[in-house]
Amino acid sequence: MLDRLNQAMEYIEDHLDEPIDGAELARIAVTSEYHFRRMFSALAGIPLSEYVRRRRLTVAGAEVLAGQRGLLDIAIAHGYGSGEAFARAFRALHGVGPQEARRTGAALRSQPRMSFRLIVEGSDSMRYRIVEKPEFRVVGKKARVPLVHEGVNPQIASFIRSVDKDTLRRIEALGDQEPRGIVSVSDDLAASRQEGTELDYYHAVLSGRPAPEDLDELVVPAGTWAVFESSGEFPKTLQYLWRDVFTQWFPSNPYRSRSGPEILRTSLSDDGTEADAELWVPVERESA
Length: 288
Prior knowledge:
- This protein is of the alpha+beta class and 288 residues long.
- Helices cover 40% and strands 25% of the residues.
- Helix 1 packs antiparallel against helix 2.
């Protein structure tokens, strides 16, 4: 898997002067474009599109300082339709416009080429199981919220507090399958997983029955799920569990993520500082 990812990175370097084809990157990595983008953002820490933008502007910055070509020629060569668009993007990364950078020899920022290599960690084994699940419904209350990578998500916390006790009891009574009880369901996330992008968040149960008219519902088709368990400090253990799934488990197992909601069941300690977590991620087997 790492060799394939590095081949995809070479493709990016060879095509920085033209639109990057996400489907071709996925073909090189022998996976789906959806999984490739999610895997990249988890491993690299930034979305694929942002990495490509930074690499283009890094190469363009070197050309600007070299002074051998006109600024408009450099802009067009790196995919910008006008000198103004290039100047805006250049300033956003480097903190200075291209004309000023050339005139003054300003210090510029550089996005290094990325490659992926194996670091022997994995001393802590991950507990997981594979579950085949028929079609089900997510039934509860839904809100559109921003993605937060570290710490408590204040909009989710506020939304949960807004669900009154009577409604919560009605939702709980509708649950009839695993994972049991009230769960957190994240759906319709941006492929980049960039902080601040939005997602649909459900405070809900899993049910085989349609939702009453005053509740929200998400119908989830039958499919395969990888189920992971973790325990530790709240909320860190929940956020690190997702990170470890994509940076450790997927590269080590013959599965890739598929489109679908992610389901998290959490059991908090009495003082709210520790949590037992169970994360359900939709997966499919990699092709041989």
